[in-house]
Amino acid sequence: MNRRILLIDDDRMQYRLTQAHFKTFQSGRYTLEWAETYEEGMRQLLSGRYDACLLDYQLGEKNGLQLIRDAVAQGCHTPIVFLTAETADRVDIEAMNAGALDYLVKGEITPRMIERSLRYALKLGETLEALRRLATRDELTGLLNRREFERVLNEEEERARRFQHPLGLVMVDIDHFKSVNDTHGHAVGDEVLREVARRVAGEVRSVDRAMRYGGEELALVLVQSDSAAAEDVARRVCAAVRREPVRVSGGRALRVTVSAGFAAFPHDAGSGPQLLNAADKALYAAKAQGRDRAVAFGEVEAGR
Q: Could you report the per-residue pLDDT of 135-167, keeping only the tens digit for each?
C-alpha cells in the first residue's frame, strides 16, 4: 500500500531533507507532499487525502500547535507527527495535548527514526479510528448511532441559530417491519434494515447526516435545509425504497416501503428537541394516513 504523507513546513530545505530520508526507508511505500504555509497546510490536511502528517512547530506568524487544535476542532483525524527544533519538555507535552501522536526533534531525526515514528502514528491512528467507529456507528447499518444523533442535532441547531440558517429533519420508519421479522426471521429483518439504510443514506448530500435512531427508525439531519428541501428528501427516500424489492438470502425479493415525517427549524420548532418532536409527529401522521408517504409537520398542525 502506498501511504500519502503531508509535510507542513515553511522551510524548503527541510522538505528536501525529508524527501531524502523517505528514499532510504526500509519498509512500506510512502509518497511525500509538501505545504509551505499554515493556510495551505490546513486546507490540504482537512481534505482527508493523507494517511499521516509531519507538522513543523514554526509556521510564520502562527505555529503548528495552533494548526493541530484548529484541525482537530474541524473534525480532522489524520495522524500527526510533530516536528520542532526545540527540546523543551513543554513543547512535547503541548503537542501531545493538542492531538499529535508523536514528537520528533529536528536535529536528532534519522531516516530510521522518522520511518518508525510514521509506522507508529499510522498504526495508532487506525486503532483510534476503529474505536471512534465503534463509539459512533451502528454496527448493523453502518450509519451514525443514537448517541451521535443527539450530538449532531445539538451541534447543528447551534450552528443554524448562529448563522440564521434553516435546519431540516426527516424521520423515517420501515412499514410493517415487525411482520418481516415474524414471517421471515430476524436475520432477514437485518438484511432488510441494512438495505433500506443504504438506500435512504444514498438520498442525502455529503454534508447531511444519516443515522439509525432506534429499531427500524432512521433520522436524516439536513443542514441549511428548509421545509421544501426536507420534503424533497423525504419524498425521494420513500421512492428509493419503494422502487424495487429488497433481495434477501434464499433469492427472495420482498416489497418494502417506508413512511417519513419532516420538519424544519426555525419554522416548525424553536429548538433541537422540539424539531425532533415535530418530525416524529409528522411521521406518526404518515403511518396513520396509510404509510408509504411523506408528511410535513405543517400538515399535522393544519389538520388539528
A: 889 989 999 999 999 999 999 999 999 999 999
Listed range (95-109, 258-272, 279-293) with the worst mean pLDDT: 95-109
Tally of CB atoms within 10 A around 28: 12
Do residues 209 and 144 lie in contact, with contact meaning Cβ atoms separated by under 8 Å?
yes
At position 9, the amino acid (one-letter code) is D
Residue range 9-61, pLDDT digits in tens: 988 888 898 888 888 887 778 889 999 888 999 999 898 889 999 998 878 77
Catalytic pick among 216, 217, 231, 244: 216
DSSP 3-state of 84: strand
pLDDT at 130: 76
Contact 250, 184 (CB under 8 A): no
At residue 109's C-alpha, the angle toward residues 104 and 112, to 5°, is 105
Decide if 210 contacts 204 (C-beta within 8 A).
yes
| C-alpha dist (Å) from residue 202 to 24, 206, 208, 256 | 44, 9, 11, 17
| pLDDT the model gives residue 89 | 62
Domain annotation for the chain: domains and CATH numbers = 2-136 (3.40.50.2300), 146-302 (3.30.70.270)
Q: Please state, in angstroms and rounded to a whole number, the distance separating the CA atoms of residues 134 and 128.
A: 10
Question: In terms of DSSP H, where are the helices of 168-218?
Answer: 177-184, 186-201
Q: Which helix (H) or strand (E) element contains residue 273?
A: helix 272-288
Is 216 in the active site? yes
Q: Which triple of cell numbers denotes residue 231? A: 420534503
How many Cβ atoms are within 10 Å of 190's Cβ, its own excluded? 15
Q: Which burial class, exposed, middle or buried, applies to 142 when counting CB atoms under 10 A from its CB (0-12, 13-18, 19+)?
A: middle
SS3 212: strand
At 226-253, the pLDDT tens digits run 999 999 999 999 999 999 999 999 889 9
